[in-house]
Amino acid sequence: MVLVLKGSKDIKKVKDLLAERPSKKNFDAKKFCGALKVDEDALVIQKRLRDEWN
User: Fold this and answer.
1) Phi then psi for 44, rounded to 5 degrees?
2) Helix (H, G, I), strand (E, B) or coil at 13
3) Residue 47 lies inside a defined structural domain of this protein
4) pTM (whole model) above 0.90
5) Is 1 contained in some domain?
6) Three-state DSSP state, 40
7) Distance in angstroms (rounded) separating the CA atoms of residues 3 and 10
8) Rounded distance, CA 1 to CA 17, Å?
9) Total tally of structural domains belonging to the chain
10) What number is the average pLDDT over the span 17-21?
11) Average pLDDT in the 33-54 region?
12) Which carries the bigger pLDDT value, residue 6 or residue 35?
């Protein structure tokens, strides 16, 4: 979503609209635990991926 703000009144209006919205639930990372099956050590994969930037 993109909003174009042209003054402080617009900012206050957007701020009020966002305050009215219900908050979302927190992200549950536990449901993804073990979802990726790999045969290689995670640290080796991480080092290899970091070396791609050099």
Assistant:
1) -65, -45
2) helix
3) yes
4) no
5) no
6) coil
7) 10
8) 14
9) 1
10) 81
11) 86
12) 35
Q: Is position 3 within any domain?
A: no
Does residue 1 register a pLDDT over 90? Answer: no
How many Cα atoms occupy the beta-carbon half-sphere of 32 within 13 Å?
4
Answer yes or no: is pLDDT of 44 > 80: yes
Report the chain's C-alpha Rg in angstroms. Answer: 21
The mean pLDDT value for 29-42 works out to 86
| Helix intervals (H) in 1-54 | 8-20, 42-51
Structural domain including 45 reads 10-52
Per-residue pLDDT, 16: 83
Calculate the dihedral angle through the C-alpha atoms of 10, 12, 17, 23, rounding to the nearest 10 degrees: 130
Residue 45 domain-assigned? yes
Identity of residue 37: K
Provide the total of helices (H) and of strands (E) in the chain, helices listed first: 2, 0
